[in-house]
Amino acid sequence: MIRKMKRTDLNEVLEIENRSFKTPWTRQQYEYEMYDNPYAHLWVLEEDGKVIGYYDLWIMFENADIASIAVDVPYRHKGYGEQLMNHLELQALKAGCENIGLEVRVSNRDAIRLYERHDFFIIATRKDYYKDEDGYRMMKGI
Description:
Elements: E1 2-4, H1 10-20, H2 27-35, E2 40-47, E3 50-60, E4 63-71, H3 80-94, E5 99-105, H4 109-117, E6 121-126, E7 135-141
């Protein structure tokens, strides 16, 4: 089940975040996203009462941007990333967005393949975007 993120989900989200990223977001960053960022839309994927994935989608007028998306390590390569992508694309469509963008580490082949399956394409390489690595800017029209 995919549902809106609640404050009580933050501990589980942060655990997934820390297992998923070299430079994970902090609790304060997520609290900002949840309570102060008017563009942020945060959702979690739950299975048997446990948060196993999430995303943060920024919707800004006709544009959407995936600020963060992750599936917990034991649940990867089982279709959950596809579920999250389908859900966020539907949210962007409902909001009247014309395109969706994201940044991804150039070394994150699994994520890049997922995005390409959803018709995203690389439009630019951002030098040192992640401080220790370049990032790709990917986009798709919807």
